[in-house]
Amino acid sequence: MDDTALLEAIAQARDTDAFAELCRRYTGRLCSFVRGRGLDDAESVVQDVMLTIWRRAGTFDPTRAAPATWIFTITRNRSTDLLRKRQRPTPDPRDPAFVTTQATTSTPAPDKAAEQSRQLAAIERAMDELPNDQRELLALVYIQGTTIAEAAKALQIPLGTAKSRIRLALASVRTHLSLEHSHG
Amino acid sequence: MVEHHLPDEVLLEYAAGAADPGHALIVACHLTLCPTCRQTVASYEALGAALTGVSTAISTPTANEDTLVARIMAGVDPTLPSETETVELPSTDPPASPHDAVFPWPLQQIIGPFKRLAWRRRLPGLRTFDVAISGARTVIRMIEAGPGMKVVGHGHTGLELDLVLAGGLEDLTRGGEFERGDIQRADADVTHTLEVLPGEPCLLLTVNEGPFVPDGLYSRLVYRYLGWS
């Protein structure tokens, strides 16, 4: 049974065997991911994430994103919330200094959610087309939580080369997204 | 064309939670003032989710995987129907209560409001405040310089990022003016002179990866006195 079928069984039949299988497939990777982002209580975070997936499996839409992307998005959001509280400063929309634009305040929530799903799917396709050296570098930064300088050292490449690869990768993803947007 | 935003790689490190604390601070302050970069960071966060979701390079097993699965299963209520509506989770943080709108809130959380900052006077028209953040490898400093003052010729030993919070700044070497919310940035290969625009003092949050490299004798004397080289 593939991941999509497991999620459908969880959502529709509340199949605990399917959920246990999904847990076995993902908990190790999710723990590595959470630890790589600097959170030491990874197992608690992953437990919380998997129970969220149990509750919200019905919101998964296979036409929008792959199961792994959906699961990692939930994990990423949860980790980011915790990182925000613990270390990473973030802008606050309630700050009197906060600058808004019409575009960021007028989008209705349902459209925003759909747009985010579309964007995720488009990013996934863009990532598939990246050369391995660029993906490898992005993976070090995102998954291991290293800075670009540390990643360059680990890969034994000059910092300038690492920065160039990052810029190329981001430009490529952006181009892909804008092309999809103009055709969508 | 002169850039007024943060470099992609700094935004990426911030989105991935990997940025130096000094960089994270200047990013958070710039994002408060720049909807364009906020959108970019949101897309980089989504990119990270996609990357980690499809990556096969993250298969480090956790030692107690079976125990963890058992713990998760113990929390499952099979009678609970699956939610079908996407729910926006409310923020659990209390509302922010900044004292003024000069410093963005992420900065006020560290050094307090602008009016209460314990500035150190360094030269006529120039006052500074060194910001200490645990774990930062960057040099983080507040600078307020009077109209017409120059940041005399200097090179860099790493990336220089300046966020303008009041007044204006001009790069006399490369051209370009910077106002509130703009980022002035220079890499290690840039040597330049900056000047505060006429009118009001220029207030800056500066984050440097290393000390300045003075350009000329006068510059060497000034930066040695200030302790910036």
TrEMBL record, chain A:
Record carries keyword Phosphoprotein: no
Molecular function via GO: DNA binding; sigma factor activity
GO biological process, one term: DNA-templated transcription initiation
Cited InterPro entries: RNA_pol_sigma-70-like, RNA_pol_sigma-70_dom, RNA_pol_sigma70_r2, RNA_pol_sigma70_r4_t2, RNA_pol_sigma_r2, RNA_pol_sigma_r3/r4-like, WH-like_DNA-bd_sf
Keywords annotated in UniProt: Sigma factor, Transcription, Transcription regulation
Domain annotation RNA polymerase sigma-70 region: ranges: 24-88
Signal peptide positions on this chain: none
Origin: domain of life: Bacteria
Domain RNA polymerase sigma factor 70 region 4 type: 121-171
Compositional bias of kind Polar residues: 99-108
Region of interest called Disordered, as start-end residue ranges on this chain: 81-113
Compositionally skewed regions (Basic and acidic residues) per UniProt: 81-95
Family: Belongs to the sigma-70 factor family. ECF subfamily.
The name this protein goes by in its record: RNA polymerase sigma-70 factor
Native species: Enhygromyxa salina
